[in-house]
Design goal:
It contains 12 helices and 12 strands. The chain has about 350 residues and is an alpha/beta fold. The protein folds into 2 domains: about 5-115 and about 195-345, Rossmann fold, CATH 3.40.50.300; about 125-195, no CATH class. Strands 6-7-8-3-9-10-12-11 form an 8-stranded mixed β-sheet, with helices on both faces. A 4-stranded antiparallel β-sheet has the order 2-1-4-5. β1 and β2 (about 45-60) form a beta hairpin. α5 runs parallel beside α7, α6 (about 150-160) crosses α7 and α7 packs parallel to α8 (about 210-225). The two termini are about 30 Å apart. Bound molecules: adenosine-5'-triphosphate (ATP), iron/sulfur cluster (SF4) and magnesium ion (MG). The site of iron/sulfur cluster (SF4) has 13 residues, from loops.
């Protein structure tokens, strides 16, 4: 069994434990997105950015999967590629059991309605020359939803009220709204076509803390009411802990740990997760007292990722094997996946370098 197959099997097994009959709504298997780097007069390809380099996960209906990791680790690229806003380099994406990986733009149209995105910077993603009502109604026009303009207007008005905007704001332009209100417009637009999956790419990162809480609560209420499934990308672990059911941690184009949020925050099994959590000042979910782990060095370039385990250049537990052999993401304990050689003989908690390791 190759590494990708064993990872996919581990993820299936881990999911089957908590929801035996539930088919995943979205299944992503060994997804890769490599951006070519062009050089010279004739734009020859001189290398690649390995932005996403073999990522597998599932989204279960009605859940929120948080996706965290340092800047540049490939979170947004995962989000955009699973929605097919970027064409994958390799791997498979299946929506409710149907493989959508190779569908072209036309064939994707019926699936587009089911997959939507909310962006970090609502101002940049809203057309300044359109009114808020036109922005929210645009997807209805494009997809031919509603028989008449009045029907579409009624739908837009109900979306406005659902996200906490007033009907009299339908005719205002984006610059007339506050940051939080603009994100509400973005959410209303994402909801217009009654999607099943919403990818939120740092949807609250640009907002004040008090407004962040309002938007997070709105997203959680909408999930309960409409049965939405979220892939929630963020770098703020407190926000991720609040909104997510499960969390995936990314490092340099790969998922290194994936489990339910309480396991992740209590017993991180990957040294990178341990370091990330050690920088969070409070531990809401009763985590053990954490030792402070200071990572050495910067994140390596995704153009030339380190050999073996991508994390070995910064890992306090790295040993010789880590430089040559990439660890597969596999189930270490029930439903808790990690990609680290430390757990090869069974879970090692607290994390420690093998006594006989060079
Ligand atoms: N269109 C592109 N062409 C070339 N490289 C790209 C492109 N888009 C992203 N990248 C590179 O891919 C890597 C991953 O980028 P990505 O935006 O997915 O990271 P991220 O985890 O979302 O980071 P951040 O937290 O800063 O938003 C980065 O090195 C980035 O420079
Ligand atoms: S495989 Fe080795 S380098 Fe990678 S996280 Fe585990 S101990 Fe660290
Ligand atoms: Mg990003």
């Amino acid at each position: 069994m190759n590494q990708a197959t064993s990872t996919a099997t581990a993820i299936r097994n881990a999911s089957a434990r908590s929801a035996p009959s539930a088919r995943p709504l979205l299944q992503v298997t060994d997804l890769k997105k490599h951006f070519p780097i062009y050089k010279g007069l004739f734009s020859q390809i001189s290398g690649h950015v390995y932005a996403v380099d073999g990522v597998s996960f599932e989204l279960r209906r009605g859940e929120t999967l948080g996706l965290v990791g340092e800047s540049g680790c490939g979170k947004s690229t995962v989000g955009r590629t699973v929605l097919k806003l970027l064409e994958p380099t390799a791997g498979r994406i299946a929506l409710d059991g149907e493989d959508i990986t190779d569908l072209d733009a036309h064939a994707m149209l019926p699936y587009r309605q089911r997959l939507q995105m909310i962006y970090q910077d609502p101002y940049a993603s809203l057309n300044p020359r359109m009114t808020a009502g036109e922005i929210v109604g645009e997807p209805l026009v494009i997809h031919g939803v509603g028989d008449t303009a009045n029907e579409r207007l009624a739908r837009v008005a109900s979306l406005f009220s659902r996200v906490g905007l007033r009907p009299d704001q339908l005719h205002n332009y984006p610059h007339e709204f506050s940051g939080g209100q603009r994100q509400r417009i973005g959410i209303a637009r994402a909801l217009a076509l009654s999607p099943e999956i919403i990818v939120g790419d740092e949807p609250v990162s640009a907002l004040d803390v008090s407004i962040q809480a309002q938007i997070i609560n709105l997203l959680m209420d909408l999930q309960d009411e409409l049965g939405l499934t979220y892939l929630f990308i963020a770098h703020d672990l407190a926000v991720v802990e609040h909104i997510s059911h499960r969390v995936a941690v990314m490092y340099l184009g790969r998922i290194v740990e994936l489990t339910d949020k309480s396991s992740l925050f209590r017993y991180p099994l990957h040294p990178y997760t341990e370091a990330l959590l050690s920088a969070v000042p409070t531990a809401k979910s009763g985590a053990r007292t954490r030792k402070r782990v200071i990572l050495k060095g910067d994140v390596p370039s995704p153009i030339r990722p380190p050999s073996g385990c991508h994390f070995h250049t910064r890992c306090p537990y790295a040993h010789r094997r880590c430089q040559v052999e990439a660890p597969a993401l596999r189930e270490v304990t029930g439903g808790h996946l990690a990609a680290c050689h430390l757990h090869d003989g069974g879970p090692k908690v607290p994390l420690a370098k093998p006594a006989d390791a060079a």
